[in-house]
């Protein structure tokens, strides 16, 4: 399965980066889900949660506000004025 290269950054630091199989974020027009092979997109973020699902099923959650999400060539960049890790749910297999 192809993976995404994900980076979540705030104005002053990188919050999280790594490979993932899926990312879901809240935009001004609703939630958007990104999988490998997604068409290029640029979306304005709404304040909310960013959920990153890793290859092993672990879900990394971050809060983000005032920013944008960019997707191109399986690279997803979330840039927010303020962002921080909230929680990580470990997969149970």
From TrEMBL:
<keyword id="KW-0139">CF(1)</keyword>
<dbReference type="InterPro" id="IPR036771">
    <property type="entry name" value="ATPsynth_dsu/esu_N"/>
</dbReference>
<dbReference type="InterPro" id="IPR001469">
    <property type="entry name" value="ATP_synth_F1_dsu/esu"/>
</dbReference>
<feature type="domain" description="ATP synthase F1 complex delta/epsilon subunit N-terminal">
    <location>
        <begin position="4"/>
        <end position="83"/>
    </location>
</feature>
<keyword id="KW-0066">ATP synthesis</keyword>
<comment type="similarity">
    <text>Belongs to the ATPase epsilon chain family.</text>
</comment>
<keyword id="KW-0406">Ion transport</keyword>
<protein>
    <recommendedName>
        <fullName>ATP synthase F1 complex delta/epsilon subunit N-terminal domain-containing protein</fullName>
    </recommendedName>
</protein>
<dbReference type="InterPro" id="IPR020546">
    <property type="entry name" value="ATP_synth_F1_dsu/esu_N"/>
</dbReference>
<keyword id="KW-0472">Membrane</keyword>
<keyword id="KW-0813">Transport</keyword>
<comment type="subunit">
    <text>F-type ATPases have 2 components, CF(1) - the catalytic core - and CF(0) - the membrane proton channel. CF(1) has five subunits: alpha(3), beta(3), gamma(1), delta(1), epsilon(1). CF(0) has three main subunits: a, b and c.</text>
</comment>
<dbReference type="Pfam" id="PF02823">
    <property type="entry name" value="ATP-synt_DE_N"/>
</dbReference>
């Amino acid at each position: 399965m192809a993976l995404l290269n994900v980076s979540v950054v705030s104005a002053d630091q990188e919050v999280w980066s790594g490979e993932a199989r899926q990312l879901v974020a809240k935009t001004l027009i609703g939630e958007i889900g990104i999988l490998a092979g997604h068409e290029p997109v640029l979306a304005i973020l709404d304040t909310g949660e960013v959920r990153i699902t890793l290859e092993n099923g672990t879900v990394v959650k971050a809060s983000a506000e005032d920013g944008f999400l960019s997707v191109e060539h399986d690279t997803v960049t979330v840039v927010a004025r303020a962002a921080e890790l909230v929680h990580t749910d470990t997969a149970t297999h």
